[in-house]
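Below is a filled-in request sheet from our internal design queue. Each sheet records the structural input a requester submitted and the sequence that came back. We keep these sheets so that new team members can see what a complete request looks like end to end.

REQUESTER: design group, bay 2
PRIORITY: normal
MODE: inverse folding
CHAIN LENGTH: 395
BACKBONE (tokenized):
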């Protein structure tokens, strides 16, 4: 059985922990979109390990695949593999020959663009790498050893953005290419073969549904498909091979960077929850914006991703509150919406108040979970109540 893990909010739902848990029951863990903008934190051997590019499933000794839909910064990859090596983890990685390469030039352009647009990107060069892909000047992994092609493309990219290109980058890229040469393969062929011979795959989503370039809060989104369709195009996997879709949702909502956030808290309420939930970005260290659980977002994300079951995370953070406030519907220009309309700016939210819980055995937590099931139509099959591996309740 192959399983997809998809974020149902704005990223940072706690996918790393759920992937770490589910990876134990799969042979391969594959990423299909994004790059080092992602940040998945997992507690391993009592230590906090932050993943950005490498699929976090490698912690369970599984083979990690970086599909053609990902954007790979070879410097960041090297750093992360070294960090894992120091922890005694020998990460086995395969990289798609068709994946796109991110360089310091893309990072520089990301900074310039973000100054102009104010999206609040992670400045990892992800947007410019996907722009280069669609402008048909992107550098693909299989070209990493070809200095001539690299020089030509880097010059073109620099010219298109009106910045200078540093010639030294060519030799550095070739050097990085030499280091990862043994990991490069046509991963779509390798994966389909593996599945045909009975191996199971966990598709590890990055970011979340509302950062998806089509279904997110455009233009405050990342530049790739973070929803379930991204698996098909980002790995070369036919849709019928995705058997289960686990949507990960935090018991409240957070967002990093700019963009609409209808259930956002303010003042004391926000800072208290941020501190309790340790809501600071794993990639940039930025303080996350914090707000109430938003059922309009969950309903839509469940629908478009074909979520079969939900993993609800961080319920321990809300523990001890007298009541839990949950957004149920939007009202935008006088019209009520069950699902988010394409523009959320200016929408107000209808709320319900549910009883809070004091511990995970509390009946009020079960009622909260049932409320989510009724509203989304998906079963909540996992409830996570702490960062440690064993703090998960399977229902
Ligand atoms: P980019 O992906 O760096 O281009 O950033 C675009 C938007 O997505 C910004 O608001 C980022 O803060 C957000 N973003 C990107 N990756 C993540 C993530 O892994 N978690 C949460 N937000 C993210």
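RETURNED SEQUENCE:
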């Amino acid at each position: 059985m192959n399983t997809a893990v998809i974020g149902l909010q704005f990223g940072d739902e706690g996918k790393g922990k759920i992937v770490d848990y589910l990876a134990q029951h799969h042979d391969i863990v594959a990423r299909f979109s994004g790059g080092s903008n992602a940040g998945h934190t997992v507690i391993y051997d009592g230590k906090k390990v932050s993943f950005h590019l490498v699929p976090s499933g490698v912690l369970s000794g599984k083979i990690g695949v970086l599909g053609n839909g990902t954007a790979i910064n070879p410097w960041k990859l090297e750093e992360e593999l070294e960090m894992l090596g120091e922890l005694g983890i020998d990460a086995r990685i395969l990289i798609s020959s068709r994946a796109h390469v991110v360089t310091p030039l893309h990072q520089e352009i990301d900074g310039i663009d973000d100054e102009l647009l104010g999206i609040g990107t992670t400045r990892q060069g992800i947007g410019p790498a996907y722009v280069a892909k669609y402008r048909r000047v992107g550098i693909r992994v299989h070209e990493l050893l070809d200095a001539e092609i690299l020089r030509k493309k880097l010059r073109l990219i620099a010219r298109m953005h009106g910045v200078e290109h540093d010639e030294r980058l060519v030799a550095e890229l070739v050097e990085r290419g030499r280091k990862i040469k043994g990991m490069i393969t046509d991963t779509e062929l390798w994966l389909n073969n593996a599945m045909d011979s009975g191996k199971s795959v966990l598709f590890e989503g990055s970011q979340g549904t509302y950062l998806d370039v089509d279904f997110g809060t455009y233009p405050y989104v990342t530049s790739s498909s973070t929803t379930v369709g991204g698996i098909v195009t980002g790995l070369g996997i036919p849709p019928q091979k995705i058997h289960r879709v686990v949507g990960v949702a935090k018991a409240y909502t957070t967002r990093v960077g700019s963009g609409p956030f209808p259930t956002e808290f303010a003042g004391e309420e926000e800072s208290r929850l941020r501190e309790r939930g340790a809501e600071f970005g794993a990639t940039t260290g930025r303080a996350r914006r914090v707000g109430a659980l938003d059922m309009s977002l969950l309903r839509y994300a469940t629908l478009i991703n074909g979520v079969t079951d939900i993993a609800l995370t961080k319920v321990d953070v809300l523990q001890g509150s007298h009541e839990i406030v949950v957004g149920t519907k939007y009202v935008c220009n006088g019209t009520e919406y069950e699902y988010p309309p394409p523009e959320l700016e200016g929408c107000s939210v209808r709320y319900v108040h549910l009883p809070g819980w004091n511990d995970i055995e509390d009946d009020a937590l079960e009622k909260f979970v049932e409320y989510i099931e009724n509203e989304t139509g998906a079963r909540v099959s996992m409830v996570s109540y702490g960062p440690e591996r064993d703090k998960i309740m399977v229902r």
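SHEET NOTES:
- The longest helix spans residues 147-161.
- The pocket of inosinic acid is lined by residues 11-12, 37-39, 119-122, 124, 126-127, 206-207, 211, 220, 222-223, 256-257 (CB under 6 Å).
FILED BY: M.R.
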